[in-house]
Structures are given as C-alpha cells and as structure tokens.
Design goal:
Layout lengths: L8 H21 L5 E7 L3 H17 L2 E7 L5 H13 L5 E4 L9 H7 L11 H9 L8 H12 L8 E5 L6 H8 L9 E5 L6 H7 L2 E4 L17 E4 L3 E4 L7 E4 L4 H4 L5 E2 L6 H20 L4
Parallel strand pairs: 1-2, 1-3, 4-5, 4-6, 6-7, 7-10
Antiparallel strand pairs: 8-9
Helix pairs in contact: 1-10, 6-7, 6-10
The chain binds NADP nicotinamide-adenine-dinucleotide phosphate (NAP).
Length: 297
C-alpha cells in the first residue's frame, strides 16, 4: 500500500489557482475586477458551507464576490427577478445558484434564466448543448471539468480507456460522460454510465480502467469491484453518523478508501480530491467570463 498512489486534489487545484491568479492580475491591470455572484435560497446547512468555501476562495484569489440570500419561502418569480438583476449588472461576470433549491422552485427554469455567458456553473441548456457537441466555447460544469483536469494533470490517459461512471446525475455523471466520450484530446474514452437500474453494476466496475463514483452512496465501491491498477475517482459527499466525530457525524465518499486504495493504481482521497478541483474550475470559469466580457477571452 503506497501513499504515492493518492491523487492530491488540493495540490493540483493550487496549480490551477496559480494560473488563475496570473489572469486576474492581467484583468486588474486593465481596470477589470472579476465578479462572481452567489445565490442561496433558504438556510440549508450544506449550501451555506459550500457557498462560504467558494466565497473564501474568491477572496483569496482577488475575485469580487457577493452573496444574495432569499428566504426559504421565496417564490420562483422572486428568484427569477433576482437572476434578471444579476444578469443586467456589468460587474457580475459569473452567477452561481447554489443547489438544492426549495421544492416548488423549478431548478431547470432558474438555470435557463441565467445568461449563458454568465453561467459559470455550466447548467444553462446552451452550455449543456455545447458540451455535448464538443464546442469548447461554452462553460463546462465545474465538477466533471475538475475531474478531467485531475486526470490530465496526474498523467492518466483517457484515450481508448474504459471509463465507468456510477451515477447519471445532471451535475456530475451525465456531463462527465459527455466530456470523456468526445473525439478530442483528453477524451476518446469508451464510457459506460451506470445508475440504479444497471444490471450487475459490480461487473461493469471491474472492467473499468477509470472508475468515477458519483452516486451519493457512502463507501459503496469496495475493493472487489475494482480492477487491480484502475484509477478510482471518488466524487461522493455523504454525511454518516460517527459517534467519535465532533457533532456526531462525518463526511465520507462513495468509495471505501481503506479497502480500495491497495487495489487501485491511483485514487483520489475524499476530502482532498474532487472537491478542491470543483472550486478551482469555478474560479477559472469566472475569470474566463470576465475576460470574455472585456473582449479578451
Ligand atoms: P444525483 O443527481 O442524485 O445522482 C445520483 C445518481 O446515482 C443517480 O443517477 C442514481 O441513479 C445513482 N445511484 C444512486 N444510488 C445508486 C445505487 N445504489 N446503484 C446505482 N446507482 C445509484 O447526484 P449528483 O448531484 O450527481 O451527486 C452525486 C454525488 O456527488 C453526491 O454525493 C454529491 O454530494 C456529490 N457531489 C460532489 C461534488 C464535489 O465537488 N465533490 C460536486 C457535486 C456532487 P438513478 O438515476 O437511477 O436514480
């Protein structure tokens, strides 16, 4: 069991932040401050934590950020009106609407209301379409884009590789599949997208050269589901009870790290793998949005 098979997401995210800082400095030299607006609805504790982390990173990099919070009982129309105001604000280059939205608000309608050129989360149908078509002009969603970057910067080839993705969610699984199946560098993989109706999931997993777990099922992937030497990417964030932890619970991934690490060729830790990359790609997308708005992207 070698420590060295761990893919350090924090270190790779730092490499990306270093590039982002240079681009921000170039924008600021032209009098442009990249701006990112976060929108939260209600007081979901996880959403507060996620937005807080992204705000802090914005501040550290020199991105101006602002957070707008609507009450839990806000209407879809109120949220759409807020999105409309942010769309119209020149100093807001990127808009992120933190999921989950309360029941009663149609998330798809809200995402579609964000201007595609400010949709740094990559959820607008235009950006989703561009991703599927392999058009690099759109914004790709941050988590799958971060995973691709992790693979590239860790020297993991995807060309011809069997990639098995667990979970067909709109935020991770589906866009990840769309990305890696493209006829393009850092793609060209043979992608299998598994979900709750997949027959013999474990057999699919065992074929994978690259196994990406994005299901939201704590420690689901065990050692006997992993081909020796495979690259394992753990996206899941699951809160599980733990009497020994502060607050009585802790976060674990979709991969049983302790048993899988000795079998895997490379593996992401969780935390410290995909999470920091998601934030790094969000910051990168925001700077790109600002560059474009300034006619430089
Ligand atoms: P989601 O939309 O709820 O999708 C979950 C997917 O997993 C669905 O396709 C579901 O199948 C499948 N699934 C669930 N249980 C299964 C099982 N027992 N066997 C087979 N398939 C199963 O979730 P998501 O938004 O994609 O997020 C997935 C996980 O990634 C969550 O834990 C989330 O917290 C985490 N996440 C992490 C980051 C990060 O930055 N680290 C970012 C985003 C999400 P069906 O479609 O058939 O229901």
């Amino acid at each position: 069991m070698a420590e060295s098979n761990v893919i350090d997401g924090r270190a790779i995210a730092e490499q990306i932040h270093a590039d982002t800082r240079v681009r921000i400095a170039a924008l600021k030299a032209r009098g442009i401050e990249p701006g990112l607006a976060f929108v939260r609805v209600g007081e979901d504790p996880a959403s507060r934590v996620y937005v807080g982390m992204k705000e802090r990173m914005s501040g550290q990099l020199g991105i101006r950020s602002e957070t707008r919070v609507l009450a839990e009982n806000a209407t879809e129309e109120e949220l759409l009106a807020l999105v409309g105001r942010l769309n119209a604000e020149a100093r807001v280059h990127g808009i992120l609407i933190q999921a989950p939205l309360p029941r009663g608000i149609r998330a798809a309608r809200v995402y579609a209301a964000v201007l595609p050129e400010k949709d740094v989360d990559g959820f607008h149908p235009v950006n989703v379409g561009k991703l599927l078509l392999g058009d690099p002009g759109g914004f790709a969603p941050c988590t799958p884009a971060g995973i691709r970057e992790l693979l590239v910067r860790s020297g993991v080839p995807t060309e011809g590789a069997e990639v098995v993705i667990l979970g067909r969610g709109d935020i991770v699984g589906k866009p990840m599949a769309a990305m890696l199946c493209q006829k393009a560098p850092h793609a060209n993989a043979t992608v299998t997208l598994c979900h709750s109706r997949t027959r013999d999931l474990a057999a699919h997993c065992r074929r994978a050269d690259i196994l990406i777990a994005a299901m939201g099922q704590p420690r689901f992937v065990k050692a006997d589901m992993v081909k020796p030497g495979a690259v394992v990417i753990d996206v899941g964030v699951n809160r599980v009870p733990d009497a020994s932890a502060k607050g009585g619970s802790r976060l674990v991934g979709d991969v049983d790290f302790a048993s899988v690490q000795p079998v895997a060729g490379r593996i992401t830790p969780n935390p410290g793998g995909v999470g920091p990359m998601t934030i790094a790609l969000l910051m990168q997308n925001t700077v790109r949005a600002a560059e474009r708005a300034a006619g430089a992207g």
